[in-house]
Amino acid sequence: MSGTTEENVDSESPRSVRSEGNTILEVRDATVSFEMERGESRVLNGVDLSVERDEVLGIVGESGSGKSMLANALLDAVVDPGKTSGSVRYFPPDGRDPIDVLELNDDELRTFRWEEISIVFQGAMSSFNPTMKIRDHFAETIDAHDADPEECIERAYDLLSELYLDADRVLDSYPHELSGGMQQRTLIALSLILEPDVLVMDEPTAALDLLMQRSIISLLDRLQREYDLTLVFITHDLPLVAHLADRIAVMYAFELAEIGPAEEIITNAAHPYTRMLLGSTPNLDAPVDEMRVIEGSSPDPVAPPTGCRYHPRCPISRDICAESSPEFEDVSAEHQAACFFHEEASDAVTYPIGEDNDAIETEGSSTSSRDYGEPILSLDDVTVEFEGDQSILDLFDEPEYVRAVDDVSLDVHEDDVVALVGESGCGKTTLGKTIIGVHRPESGNVTYRGQDIWEARDSHREAEISFSEIRGALQMIHQDPGSSLNPNKRVIHSLRKPLKKSQPDLERVEQERRIMAMLEYVGMSPPEDYANRYPHQLSGGEKQRVALIRALLMNPDVILADEAISALDVSLRVEMMELLLDLQGRFNTSFVFISHDLSNARYLAEKADGRIAVMYLGEIVEIGTVEQIIHDPQHPYTQALRWATPDLNPRNESEESPIRAIDIPDPKDPPSGCRFHTRCPEAREICRQVHPTNISTNGSEVACFRADPDHDYWDSPSIVNEESDDDETSMSTLD
Amino acid sequence: MSNQNNPLELLETTDDVEPTTRSERWRVWIDLWILTPLQIMWKDRRTRYGSLIILLYFMVGTVGVRLVSPATQNEGPAYVQPFDFEYTHMVYGYEVWQFPLGTNGFGEDIFAQTIHATPAMLQMMLAGGVFTAFVGAVVGIVAGYKRGTTERILMTAADIQIAIPGLPLLIVLAMALQPRSPIVVGLILGITSWAGLARALHSQVLALRSESYVEASRLMGFGSFPIMRDDLIPNIMPFIMINFMNAAIGIIHLSVGLYFLGVLPFTTDNWGVMINFAYNHGALLSWAGLPWLLAPIFAISLLGYGITIFSQGMDRLFNPRVRARHATTMDDSDEPDPMQ
Amino acid sequence: MNYYVKRVLQSLFTIWAVLTITFVLIRWMPGGPLDYLMAQFVQGNLGPSGTGVDTQERIAAFERMAEVYINFDPTAPLYVQYFEYVGDVLTGNLGRSIWYQQPVEEVLFPAIPWTVFIGAVAIFISFISRVIVGAALAYKEGSKLDIGGTTLLIWGHSIPFYVVAILLLYTFGYQFGWFPVSGRYNPDPPAGLNWPFIAGILHHAALPMVALAWASFGAGAIAMRANAIQILGEDYLRAAKLRGITSKRITLLYVARNAILPMYTQMLIQVGFIFSGSIILEMVFEYRGVGWYMFQAIQNNDYPLMMGCFLLITVTIAIAMLVADLTYGLVDPRVRRGESSESF
């Protein structure tokens, strides 16, 4: 993409410096309220905010902080029966009179939205009409605004191809035929079709993989400059916007807590909440010991705390905080915080970013000095297949098989942590379930303490270790807290079940005593109260803790934690991981931890001195200690994941994308040779033809020719700049 | 690797948990399973009226038949109109209508006929409903949970049953078997309706069995039976109950239809038989026949309406959220509403 | 195996199963076709009668007769009976009606168009009206109109359609005299493509059509209301509004389309219901369609005709359900992808 040189030069200058009077959106005392049986629920409370022309404003907050309501209020799009009050003024770029958005009638709103401001919602899948082709979505939007169809369709083609999509294919598809990442990018194109000046994005990437998230952020960065967009980007994920945003606003409990230039917010946050949020976010650079847990939970919109809304959770709160609510105070010229004691916050609440973290390199360098001994579980050349989809056309074809796991070998030792990392669809959950004997492999062996699991199952009682014993020793915590507990049973009932299995002779009183002790131990107190609750009376984090106890009461050797923390709020994740680690040490249990997030994997694996395994399309492409995977990744895919993992340090300038294609290839028909060659920045001719085997380099194993300095690879011609025929989403020219 | 130093022993807490006493558990049980459901039923308009209507039919079927003497031919003139004060008799010292709903073309009391048809209809309905719900639930749950050959066989049987049209099959069966007992009639009518429920439950169970908590139970080593009992059935019980009620309505409609067609032997008073007689014996020819026709029709549709609205409010009864809010033995701490 | 092949095989299997069931019923039903035929024969009502015919000949005559009426010879080995029966039915030979003394297919086939005519129009009326009523109630969800309308619909659903048929016949046929109370057409104008004749047909068919449309109206409208309410809460609807799409287009292409599509399968399955429900309906209106003949067959113990009707209805339903399943993918783009691939 050429022709962006000028803008590029422009963007070199610090974006946070803006000239006065350049405001495009001015929000004054914006309030959104819902009438509820319990009383008025104010889900946005008196927010003042100015959005500058051509800036990227990141609005950050946890779920339930009111950030989505703010996004909706900008377009006067709060759903009924919510009421929006205050004022939102829009200053058109061509010098027309300012528009009071909340005063517009329906017809005026209809033209205002999408032509001046448009919005992208979180769930791309649910933003398209499932029975209408993508092309019709574009056409009807153009039609509804009486825009020039030819010009707009041309723009649609441009936008789609700039977002690395094959425009013809996308336009002629139904929504469900596109992957989540493709849908999200299509939605972005649809929102820009009428050339709005402001684009509001409400958690546009939350449901996507990190690599996809990061790729979209890169694309947005460029689109914003190319189309002179003002971007309001709403997210729960502070590191994600850290590099994209010019300014960041932090919301807490339906109010703005702090606003300022991105770099300042990250290096020198003034509000204690922001500092806690920054400290509790796992990231790759900060030493793990310095990450914190935010105590307490978000307030209720009907009865928020008096005074400063953060005071019940704030470590430096004093009497005045409970009595009166703080006004915005200047921290610096462009940086304000709503805190009486913001000057003290930096000493009271520390977080690792902004400080020098050279220390990590030396401190965390405990290379694989561990003596593992006999493995508990061992996988030997395991392959797992699934029957693939069928289309209406192949009436008589044999069904296709998807190799979800292809020829994987792995050992899990006593007191071990193995973190499986990869994009969704890479087979990590299947591999995890194969490890604990849920999926039966098509070929290869899974052995538990020397006993083949599936042999034990088939031969019933003759095996050395019976299948039921193996079954009990391998447990699992699932991803979705919502379905992890039987909704019809109380907590105590769900927790009695494992005890009935693991210790059938235990008396009822003793059972209850143990359950209560465990509940108390994981911080659910008073335990008698929690024991009698139904799952719907627990929060997501509490449900996951009950699921964890349930697994532990089986007294297992290995627990598979399948994305067990990704559904939790950012501030709860570290807490849950801490609990896992604590219990691991106490009960001598090994964990297989599945995550798409390298920083979570790193947090857990580093603290437990475990390993990280990186998966791509059914294969483990690299496995090693944290030190090796995080600080010295060998495989280009690991490097890509490393790039995609947001980090907070603003000095780590965002490098250009290391992958050539955004979308993951069809797992039914994986690429020949090295499966990563279609996206690999280092791919050469040989990668297309020969499948690399694992190469050991000082303790870690890598499936890449580049790890072998004498390999033929180095003589093979590069295929990076080649236009491959099927590759519509080539990213090689990004930035 | 049995209990070599059970790590759970590590967790000793000093304060002992008070064991719950037997009587306390009883109190909780009664509260949870009797008081709370009644309370919830009363609170919702649909379940309140629905249960009142069902209760009314039950009372008519048990007590009503003892209070009202059966109809006999020529007990009055033909086609007496409803609420006609010319015909009265004394009941417990009060003068009331002798034929509250008038008489039919044979001079029979329509009110008495309608009342005396109730017990047989209720028996039919119950027998057919229970049969449908039981067979449908067993087939659907087992097929959904067991998978493999069991699933294929059961679902093929259900699909064939669905494909065979109900009414003609019943006509053929009724002609062949000539059932006389209302309960047997109910069971035969149930033959045509279990398959639909089995198919619907099958897909529900398929969805449920991949829920995390079911997989967790499997991983703990629980067998099929405890998983179906604890994890599956409680969650599909509302669905089964609603289908039980719909099946009951279907049984009434079918039986009335078959009696109307005259393929089932006429044994006792019966709403379908009443319609059949009215249709075939001249009720259609004048307005005077209207009560003869309307009385059974009203009886059928009121019962159907009562059951339908009751079943619509029913899922609330099984919903743990609603239950928890009403139970007194449980403290009421719902999560705050997440507004976004 | 492929889903479509599987589905076709399953339908064939169903038809085979029904054939077998009818064979079993004919062969062994106590007081059923075979016994009845035998009794009629012994009484001399059917077949050659009179004295002077020797036993051998009488048995041979009975065998010939059984062959004609129920398609198999009851004295032959069982498997021969079975194959004879199935073979005959598959070639369109459904036996001979005792009452009409005509081949069953000759009695039934001319009746099919009448039943199909009433059924098709009834489905159409019912479909349109429940979509409109259901959608209207959904748009007004929670209003007095919605509460009252839903109550009425449930009431309506609680009244069986044949009861409605009787009430319509009673009120508009007998009492007001607006519609004929029996028959399919007027005898006076000569049959043909002239307006008075066609008007007569419509006049006769009106009440049965309304009654039949009633059968699926209540439940269908409630289902449509629920579908529409769910779709009115979908994010894509909100997104479309924000994009400025007109409410007319949203109603048609977003709400209606997505709410109606799931009702497609249901609609085709009703084709089967029409044949099955026609038994009572056509009896009430004395309308000579397939159902009327089945009712006549029941009344007259005309077992070959009854079994013929049963087979005809069953096969129609099997085919309708097959068509519904096979074509649903063409109607609703969403189901084309089959099972989701979220399993790994």
From TrEMBL, chain A:
Keywords: ATP-binding, Cell inner membrane, Cell membrane, Membrane, Nucleotide-binding, Translocase, Transport. Residues 1-22, 647-672, 713-735 are annotated as: Disordered. Residues 27-278, 377-642 form the ABC transporter domain. CDD domains: ABC_NikE_OppD_transporters. The keyword DNA-binding does not apply. It comes from the Archaea. GO terms for molecular function: ATP binding. It holds the Pfam family ABC_tran. SMART domains: AAA (SM00382). InterPro entries: AAA+_ATPase, ABC_Ni/Peptide_Import, ABC_transporter-like_ATP-bd, ABC_transporter-like_CS, Oligopep_ABC_C, P-loop_NTPase. PANTHER family: ATPASE AAA-TYPE CORE DOMAIN-CONTAINING PROTEIN (PTHR43297:SF14), OLIGOPEPTIDE TRANSPORT ATP-BINDING PROTEIN APPD (PTHR43297). NCBIfam families: oligo_HPY (TIGR01727), PRK11308.1 (NF008453). This is ABC transporter ATP-binding protein. It comes from Natronoglomus mannanivorans.
From TrEMBL, chain B:
Residues 118-311 form the ABC transmembrane type-1 domain. It is found in: Cell membrane; Membrane. CDD domains: TM_PBP2. The chain crosses the membrane at residues 49-69, 124-145, 157-177, 183-201, 239-264, 284-307. It comes from the Archaea. The keyword Membrane applies. It holds the Pfam family BPD_transp_1. PROSITE patterns: ABC_TM1. Its main location: membrane. It is a multi-pass membrane protein. InterPro entries: MetI-like, MetI-like_sf. Keywords: Membrane, Transmembrane, Transmembrane helix, Transport. The keyword Membrane applies. Belongs to the binding-protein-dependent transport system permease family. This is ABC transporter permease. It comes from Natronoglomus mannanivorans. The lineage of its organism: Archaea, Methanobacteriati, Methanobacteriota, Stenosarchaea group, Halobacteria.
Automatic annotation (TrEMBL), chain C:
The chain crosses the membrane at residues 12-29, 111-139, 151-173, 193-215, 267-285, 305-331. It is found in: Cell membrane. It comes from the Archaea. SUPFAM superfamilies: MetI-like. Residues 112-324 form the ABC transmembrane type-1 domain. Keywords: Cell membrane, Membrane, Transmembrane, Transmembrane helix, Transport. It is a multi-pass membrane protein. Belongs to the binding-protein-dependent transport system permease family. This is ABC transporter permease. It comes from Natronoglomus mannanivorans. The lineage of its organism: Archaea, Methanobacteriati, Methanobacteriota, Stenosarchaea group, Halobacteria.
